[in-house]
């Protein structure tokens, strides 16, 4: 998993509440178990018209936001079914950070497992960030995970809170397996002691 330290990129405004995982990646794309190739299907029901052409009004189809790395979204992002394809699609599109006032628990956890930083901010902070994101190609935001800050295009800075263990996981680029392997010496030592003291197990 790629490390997440500092991310600077265009932020796309998506001020819609209750964006569920079916909106993020519709069910017809769930047949694959590959983590790549889903970026083109991200928000497909909003991005494309019935004939397959692009919906010019959707934010990610606008020239300024086609390379967006950050999404600033409404409350309760990622609700609905527990499909890991949702963070896969975001990551494959190029999104490494989603900012909202709240996230559904399963989606929130899946983000950390896939190298995406889901940031929870206050409604007042979200309003400021949405205002920044509305600036199009000038909507460049810097997220510094180490310092736990978000810096806007005018230099304004916000602080965010994050669980220390989740923060370290992203800084080191550790998925669940890699995180467990970090403790391999301790685990192996415990197993060796158990084998000696309880050989019948």
Automatic annotation (TrEMBL):
Q: Which GO terms of the molecular function aspect are on file?
A: 3-isopropylmalate dehydratase activity
InterPro entries to which the protein is assigned, alphabetical: 3-IsopropMal_deHydase_ssu (IPR004431), Aconitase/3IPM_dehydase_swvl (IPR015928), AconitaseA/IPMdHydase_ssu_swvl (IPR000573), IPMI_Swivel (IPR033940), LeuD (IPR050075)
Q: Which Pfam family, any one of them, does this sequence belong to?
A: Aconitase_C
Which pathway is this protein engaged in?
Answer: Amino-acid biosynthesis; L-leucine biosynthesis; L-leucine from 3-methyl-2-oxobutanoate: step 2/4
List the EC numbers from the record. Answer: 4.2.1.33
- Record SUPFAM superfamilies: LeuD/IlvD-like
- Lineage, top-rank taxon, reads Bacteria
Q: Which residues form the Aconitase A/isopropylmalate dehydratase small subunit swivel domain?
A: 1-122
Q: Which UniProt keywords apply?
A: Amino-acid biosynthesis, Branched-chain amino acid biosynthesis, Leucine biosynthesis, Lyase
The record's catalysed reaction(s) read:
(2R,3S)-3-isopropylmalate = (2S)-2-isopropylmalate
Q: Which CDD domains does the record cross-reference, listed alphabetically?
A: IPMI_Swivel
Which PANTHER family does the UniProt record give?
3-ISOPROPYLMALATE DEHYDRATASE SMALL SUBUNIT (PTHR43345:SF5), 3-ISOPROPYLMALATE DEHYDRATASE SMALL SUBUNIT 2-RELATED-RELATED (PTHR43345)
Family per record: Belongs to the LeuD family. LeuD type 1 subfamily.
| Subunit structure and binding partners | Heterodimer of LeuC and LeuD.
As for what it does, the entry says: Catalyzes the isomerization between 2-isopropylmalate and 3-isopropylmalate, via the formation of 2-isopropylmaleate.
> What is the official name of this protein in its record?
3-isopropylmalate dehydratase small subunit
- Which organism is this protein's natural source? Devosia rhodophyticola
Q: What is the lineage of its organism?
A: Bacteria, Pseudomonadati, Pseudomonadota, Alphaproteobacteria, Hyphomicrobiales
Underlying gene: leuD
């Amino acid at each position: 998993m790629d490390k997440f330290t500092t991310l600077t990129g265009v932020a796309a405004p998506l001020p819609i509440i209750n964006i569920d995982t079916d909106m993020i990646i519709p069910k017809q794309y769930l047949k694959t178990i590959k983590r790549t190739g889903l970026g083109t299907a991200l928000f497909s029901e909003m991005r494309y018209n019935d004939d397959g052409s692009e919906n010019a009004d959707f934010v990610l189809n606008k020239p300024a936001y086609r390379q967006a790395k950050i999404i600033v979204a409404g409350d309760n992002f990622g609700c609905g079914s527990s499909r890991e394809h949702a963070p896969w699609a975001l990551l494959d599109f190029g999104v490494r950070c989603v900012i909202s006032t709240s996230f559904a628990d399963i989606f929130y956890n899946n983000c950390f497992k896939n190298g995406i930083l889901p940031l929870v901010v206050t409604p007042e902070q979200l309003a400021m960030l949405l205002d920044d994101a509305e600036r199009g190609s000038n909507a460049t935001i810097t997220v510094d995970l180490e310092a736990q800050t978000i810096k806007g295009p005018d230099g304004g800075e916000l602080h965010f809170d994050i669980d220390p263990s989740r923060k370290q996981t992203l800084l080191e680029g550790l998925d669940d397996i890699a995180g467990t392997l970090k403790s391999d010496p301790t685990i192996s030592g415990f197993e060796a002691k158990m084998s000696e003291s309880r050989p019948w197990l």
